[in-house]
Design brief:
The complex is a heterotrimer of chains A (233), B (373) and C (193). Chain A is an alpha/beta fold and 233 residues long. Chain A has helices at residues 3-17, 22-25, 30-52, 74-85, 106-115, 175-186; strands at residues 99-101, 123-133, 136-144, 151-159, 164-166, 189-191, 219-220, 223-224. Classes of the chains: A alpha/beta (233), B alpha+beta (373), C alpha+beta (193).
Chain lengths: 233, 373, 193
């Protein structure tokens, strides 16, 4: 690119950043116009990233805190309350996005989350599984309270080959189907579930599809699974 | 004369059935005609949507989201796009917001018309079905004018929409709304207040609000039980806070609160509210604006996860998206409203008779594409 | 007892209201009929005025068509397809922008950009295609498009393309004989391999 082309592009980017796209669109040469537009996009992205680096996360707190003042963020506040009532159940430091728990006391914590009047999480919105790599699987719960209109997210990590989490289907009745689906896709066992079987895949399917190391089986009851097309390779 | 004791029979309402709204299998344990237990078996339409999403870029996922709830595809696109934009903290131009709301509300009318028509068809009324489909065709013609497709649009993109509204869209839309409002009266005369329909649907399948919330039921099913919860008012996304409309709740007009008739009637009221929103949006839409201006060249959200919900015609559609900074998502989970509605079927239909089960299933308005993904 | 008679009266009156509506529509059938009698009346040239003016449409989803003379082999449509139903194989042209008469390769597209690659294989599997239109947007030459609508000047609308055999639905748009022609043109590579 020649020097005056670069200068022209810098000028156009300045104009574009202040909202004037006509001078860019009026250029006849398609190559120059596309170069100007890509430079403008890069400049806009740089501006956005510059404003986003705001230190909003608190410094990492220790697991068992007792006299630190919790922030306004709901995950932090409720994580603090859980830690006070069920000591030893937090699995990592408190942060703004989620609460990480250990699976042992999960059933009691879940009952407390629903029955405590100031929290009253009466609806389980979404239940996902996640394959987080290095031999761990995670179950993530999104809760919502209809009375107080607040949301939290809880994550429970378990080892891949021994994935057992207490089931909460007696507390939130939709947990029944959600947990069956997570078991079907990830292979996390929910202890205490009254009807523990696969949901979407057939009962005799092998493997857990949404894990990252899943290999699809070759045949199912004699039918070849991968598609075979002639004339198309 | 003594009492005749029957024995339990297991009846299979198979995957191929005209009244089950898709490939749904119901294992029904009956004692004579009275149901004692229903177990839905799903998975016949499972297409591994979530596994596919882990191999495609964010904008290639959008045709796949269309096909999950194929009767309200604009709403699915809207939900996904709102989630990705929230993750990327991307702001869209105002015109794009207006276009999206207009399309979503038209889609709501179209989907509710189909739901009501097919419900009448399940009960046995053939005429309202065809009348409602005739009006739905006019809405689909308007969609075809804009994006070329009638059912699976791929219209809403991350950061904008694929095409601007064509010339003459606003006039055609106003003509349609003027034609459509008297038609709602015709539907009420044909079906809603028909005595046979009321006998088949009132007081049947009553859903108490606590059970509904515990099962995660949302949308018109929840509002018919008296709970005033609408995501467009309680947690507004896009520009829904600029419009003036009411949240319709059931009131037990012909029978108890939360029965099948209430679920039907709430959908009918919502169609009227959508017409109100549409009139306001079509009057306020800005005339000029570039709909492609905020579409990013390469969609690369920052590392993180998000759960966001939107209000589709069937309820709360939630997308849980996790990204690790690359153009391909790590995990996309779609939490569909029909999944929770089907989960509550077993609880609702105990003690009713066989033909009531068809009535309850029709009033829940499920689409198997969304449940199985 | 009164409820019994009231129920009977309500049933009859609501049924009469419903029947009255259908009777009205039946009497006015010439005005209210909305059915398109396919195959005698085909969209988008209806004999009756149903739908909107064809020229107002933004885009129409129909069969995909490729003007192979315009394709520069950039592979953008292949990358954009969500179901991977497009397969393109290109080879470097010996001279950029030059026609090659033996295989029918035209060196310059209709937008006056010079082609650097020769497309030896351009297959679209219409059985996999999901008609999402995502391949048409990135094409710099607009050579892949859906027929009809705003593209009617390039190709009239075509939505009736069913075949008897499934392998007939794999459309091969590259000119036949291109691959062999290119192999013949480069004898030096063959000697090396």
């Amino acid at each position: 690119m020649s020097v005056d082309q670069e200068k022209l592009i810098a000028e156009l980017v300045e104009k574009g950043l202040s909202g004037d796209m006509d001078s860019i669109n009026a250029i006849e040469d398609r190559v120059l116009r596309s170069k100007a537009k890509s430079a403008l996009a890069k400049a806009k992205r740089a501006a956005k990233v510059a404003t986003k680096i705001v230190p909003s996360e608190k410094k990492t707190l220790e697991v068992s805190i007792d006299d630190k003042q919790p922030s306004d963020n709901l995950n932090q506040k409720i994580g603090h309350m859980i830690d006070k009532k069920f000591p030893g159940s937090l699995d990592s430091e408190l942060n703004d996005t989620h609460i990480q728990l250990k699976p042992d006391q999960w059933f009691d914590i879940a009952q407390w989350l629903k029955s405590e009047p100031s929290l009253h999480f009466d609806s389980l919105q979404c239940h996902t599984g996640m394959d987080v790599g290095d031999e761990k699987l995670e179950a993530r719960y999104n809760f919502h309270s209809m009375t107080h209109d607040h949301y939290i997210e809880i994550r429970i990590a378990v080892p891949r080959d021994n994935a057992h989490i207490p089931s909460i289907e007696q507390i939130w009745r939709i947990g029944d189907w959600f947990e069956r689906e997570t078991y079907d896709m990830f292979g996390i066992f929910f202890d205490g579930h009254r009807d523990h079987r696969r949901m979407l895949l057939p009962e005799d399917w092998e493997g857990y599809p949404l894990r990252k190391d899943y290999e699809v089986q070759e045949t199912y009851h004699g039918i070849a699974i991968p598609k075979v097309k002639e004339g198309w390779e | 004369m003594g009492v005749v004791h029957g024995e339990q029979m297991v009846l299979n309402i198979g995957p191929q059935h005209p009244s089950t709204h898709g490939v749904l299998r119901l294992k029904v344990k009956t004692d004579g005609e009275i149901i004692s237990e229903i177990t839905p078996v799903i998975g016949y339409l499972h297409r591994c949507f979530e596994k596919h999403c882990e191999n495609m870029t964010y904008d290639q996922v959008i045709p796949y989201t269309d096909r999950c709830d194929y009767l309200a595809a604009m709403a699915n696109n809207f939900g996904y796009v709102v989630a990705v934009e929230e993750l990327m903290e991307l702001k869209v131009p105002e015109k794009v917001d207006y276009i999206r709301v207009i399309m979503a509300e038209f889609q709501r009318i179209a989907s509710h018309l189909l739901a009501l028509g097919v419900y009448g068809l399940d009960i046995g009324a053939f005429t309202p079905f065809l009348f409602m489909l005739r009006d739905r065709e006019r809405i689909l013609d308007m969609f075809e004018m804009t994006c070329g497709a009638r059912l699976l649009y791929n219209y809403m993109w991350v950061g904008g929409v694929s095409h601007d509204l064509p010339k003459g869209f606003v006039e055609t839309a106003f003509q349609f709304l003027d034609y459509f409002e008297p038609q709602i009266e015709e539907y009420n005369n044909l079906l809603t207040y028909n005595k046979i329909f009321i006998e088949r649907t009132a007081d049947i399948g009553v859903l108490p609000p606590e059970v509904a919330i515990s099962y995660g039921v949302s949308g018109p099913n929840l509002r018919a039980s008296g709970v005033k919860w609408d995501l467009r008012k309680n947690a507004p996304y896009s520009i829904y806070d600029k419009f003036d409309f009411d949240v319709c709740i059931g009131d037990g007009g012909q029978g108890s609160l939360g029965d099948c008739w209430d679920r039907y009637y709430v959908r009918m009221l919502e169609v009227k509210e959508s017409v109100k929103i549409l009139r306001q949006a079509l009057a306020q839409i800005p005339k000029d604006g570039d709909v492609h201006q905020a579409i990013p060249k390469k969609i690369r959200p920052p590392k993180g996860s998000i759960y966001s919900r939107t209000e589709t015609p069937r309820g709360d559609l939630g997308f849980y998206i996790e990204s690790d900074g690359s153009p391909i998502p790590t995990r996309v989970k779609m939490r569909s409203p029909a999944f929770t509605a089907l989960a509550v079927l077993g609880e609702l239909s105990e003690g009713w008779m066989m033909s009531d089960v068809i009535s309850i299933l029709g009033s829940l308005d499920i689409v198997l594409g969304e449940i199985d993904r | 007892m009164i409820k019994y008679f009231r129920d009977i009266w309500e049933s009859i009156s609501t049924m009469m209201t419903g029947l009255g509506i259908t009777w009205k529509h039946m009497v006015h059938i010439r005005r209210d009929n909305v059915t398109l009698q396919y195959p005698e009346e085909k969209w988008p040239r209806p004999e009756r005025n149903i739908g909107f003016d064809h020229s107002n449409y933004n885009v129409i989803r129909s069969r995909l068509q490729v003007d192979i003379d315009d394709c520069i082999g950039c592979l953008k449509c292949e990358r954009a397809c969500p179901v991977q139903c497009i397969k393109i194989v290109t080879e470097k042209a010996p001279t950029r922008g030059e026609d090659i008469q033996e295989i029918g390769h035209i060196g310059v597209t209709s937008n006056s950009s010079r082609k650097a690659m020769v497309v030896t294989r351009f297959d679209i599997d219409m059985t996999e295609c999901c008609y999402c239109n995502l391949c048409t947007y990135p094409c710099p030459e607009e050579c892949i498009f859906m027929t009809g609508g705003p593209n009617a000047h390039k190709h009239p609308i075509d939505y009736e393309f069913s075949e008897f055999d499934r392998s007939d639905l794999i459309y091969r748009f590259a000119k036949p004989g291109t691959k062999e022609g290119m192999d013949k043109l480069k004898p030096t590579e063959k000697v090396k391999a």
